[in-house]
Specification:
There is one protein chain. The chain is mainly α. The protein contains 41 helices and no strands. Helix 34 crosses helix 35.
Amino acid sequence: MSMKIMRLALTMISLAGMYQLLAPQASPISSPRIPVATSWSGTRELAAGSPEAALLAVQNDTISTVADTLLRLFKIGTINATLGNAADAVAALNTVNIRSPLLRPLALEQIGDVHLSQGDHVRAMDAYSSVLAVAGLPEKYRQHIFAKIRPLVADHRVPLPSNRNWVAEYRRWEQAQRRFDIDGLEAAFDSLTAAGFIARADSLFERHLPDISRLDACRLVERVFSVRPIDSQTSTRFLLNMAAQANDCRFRATAQRMFDAAQERSDFTTALPARDALLLSANIAFSGSRWREAGELYGRFHAAHGPDSDVLMNAARSYRNLGDHDEARKWYDLHLRHFPGNRQSNEILWLRAWDFEVSGEYVQAAAAYRRVMGTNSNRVEEAHLRHALCYYKMGQHDSVIVHLNTFQSRLPRSNRIMASMFWQGKAHAAAGRTQEAHRVWNRIVQLNPADYHAHRASALMGVEHQVTTSAAAQMTDAQAREWLNSVSPASTRKRLTAQDTTALRRGAALLTVARPEVADFFFDNYVRNFGGNLQLQVEISTGYALAGSPTLSFNVAQRLSWRIPINQRARIPLQALAVMYPSAYAPTITYYAERFDINPRFVSSMMMQESTFNPILVSHAGAVGLTQIMPATGRDIIARELNEPFTVDSLYSYRYNIRFGTYYLSKRLAQFGGNHVLALAAYNAGAHNVNQWLERRKYEDDDVFIEDIGFRETRTYVKIVMGTYWTYQALMGIPGYEYYTPTRTSMIGETHPGAIPQWINER
């Protein structure tokens, strides 16, 4: 965000007299503001991990008013607690506790933390207990305090108070938490293994596997079983169970190694029923892309044990991946015969239509897509579009327009409406009706200028694309507020009760001391359930960014983008666009983008789609962090080519992850001659698939190529990332919007992923 935009945002979220001792009455404002203090002094420094500088900034603050005194004292106490100045922290926080009912629970929590850091567990319990005595706290915040009390009771034998009404609630919560602790499991497992008690260690892990999350189970399997030699003490049954677990975690080499070791055991046939062993073997081969072997194993399973939906589908997919469409069709036919009403049978209809289209049999493909359109499949909307594309490929452009008109009238709320209008324009253009094509494309641009299809339409019309109007880009904060209120129907807006306002004020106080994750306990309700209060969403998102959490900020901004009516998106003010297209992690991104010769906004766009700027995100497939690096890719390709050490845990480091992801994206960009679409497709689906798609579609235009990308996920991914990238680029041309672009050396000063520029305290 630029200085201008941040100033506007700060003006919107600044109200004097916030922290009165009396609770406010219900707000008459239709779209209430987040009531934040008048000063953000010290917030930047705290978010950047510099509490000494934060304390100096607060002490030197001459802007705060008398009404802000208690908040200032709360900040001083919190910062001193961070610095380990226990006496100063408790003195300041006790004053806040006595004088401010509003800030009392937050001050008491900090006091409890100070006592805990000093080993005074009894006084810590007293402070946390006093927090829970405050009425009206959000449930998630109460559970946050429960989590601090639990080790006091379990590890330090501090008794629970006998006369507090929260104790019964705590006991119910604690009972629900009683699952085997993953850290304890790892420690016990490692200890037994080191002592040579392999069988006992394996038994312990197997027994508690159902009690831990899939992520934890996969992490332990990768850490231990991918490198541990197969010991004679390890039972055959355990080897098979771990092979299945490793395969589920997509550690294919580990899965195969353990399965092969089990097969060599004399008790293999009794350790696992033959049916299960055959299926596991087939699944491991399938996961490892050994298509011929997988197809044959699934065939043996079907012959021995009869029809199974997943087996029939995987057999068909195996032969389809081999290019043996006749054999694949045989297995698809078996599935349709045995499971006619099954969800996967609808998918078979889709795949058959797709195969016809890939083979250039467009008449048959169109007929097959019509069958899909008559089902309850989640492919119905896409089938309408592909049905029309078949006619486009046959040169029957008027038929394209007719079919897409029908689609738009039948499913006017489909998320493929923009795509359908884009292809109507393409059909008009192909038929020589340029003026009509431009009319359709201009409507797309007016509806949602940040959409991928709007950018493509602008490019085809040869006009410079803008993501907002000039008037909207120049709105003052008051005008932006008025606009946000005007575009949201009154029926969707909610008034704040006194309790609502109190919760928002507490959350705001936590933001000023850079505790966004705790503030989220207070804001979550308003993010989820006050969606019609668009201005409130902008202000919460801005507050999270100021407090150093690009993840939480973007989560709110993303919801905001969905909630703005589609017919108003051409007039979104720059204040809102700045949080919807943030410069999160920009110093680090720019540093490595410069190093690897790639546009930093392209990296930001990829990162937004991969992880929504969440540095600890782990996908179902095991991809980690901001740029969603697969551990095997990080270890076997990126780390080796960069000549750097590698551990899976390092991918949770935002700098490390950004370095790896930026390098890998630049590698794909270079591989495909600087073509952004092909680089993204390769990043998502693998270069080998992109080469296959290029070979199959090398004579068709770029728009057709994107629609014909062989994986639905990759088609969507490419469009979203390219639309975001083009939007970032368009924003760069608007006065007042800035994407942080430092020199190489200036990146070193970024000590926190959400570090805030120095001008946040300017007025």
